[in-house]
Amino acid sequence: MDLIKFVENEFKVEKEHPKFSAGDTITVSYLIREGNKERVQNFRGVVLQIKGRESTKTFTVRKMSGGIGVERIFPLSSPFIENIEVNKKGKVRRKRLFYLRGLTGKKARIKEKRF
Fold it and tell me: Which Gene3D superfamilies match (predicted)?
C-alpha cells in the first residue's frame, strides 16, 4: 500500500478547484480532443455525489438535455478539466442525490442556500 501511495504522490497534479458539494449547480469546462483538434466543452448541471478521496476523487454531474437526463462522472484530478465554476449553492440534507433521477420539472428543483 505504501508503494501505491508513493506512486500517486509522484504523479499528482495539483489544481485549485472551488469547494462544492452535492446539490450545487456547477459548470465544468472540459477539454475534448477530436482527432488533432482540441476544444473546450461546458457541462452545467447539479452535483449528485462526490466519491473517493485525494487523487481518486470523482464527482457526478446531472443535467437535463432535451427532456432526457444526462449524467457524467468527472475525476477531480483530471488534466482535461480546465476549470470548475460554482453557479448556485444548493440546500440539501443528503450526500448522494440519486432520488433526482426519478423527478422532473418543478419537483426536481433544489432550494438555493442563502448567505
Answer: 2.30.30.790
Mean pLDDT in residue range 5-30: 86
| In contact, 19 and 41? CB cutoff 8 Å | no
Torsion of CA 11, 16, 20, 26, to 10 degrees: -100
Kind plus residue range of the DSSP H or E element containing 5: helix 2-10
CATH for 84: 2.30.30.790
- Model-level pTM? 0.83
Residue 15 counted as domain residue: no
> In which domain, by residue range, is 54 found?
25-90
> Looking at the 3D structure of the chain, how many domains does it have?
1
Q: Are 80 and 30 in contact (CB under 8 A)?
A: yes
Grid coordinates belonging to 92:
440539501
Strand intervals (E) in 1-115: 25-34, 37-51, 58-65, 68-75, 81-88
* pLDDT of amino acid 87: 94
In a domain, 45, yes or no: yes
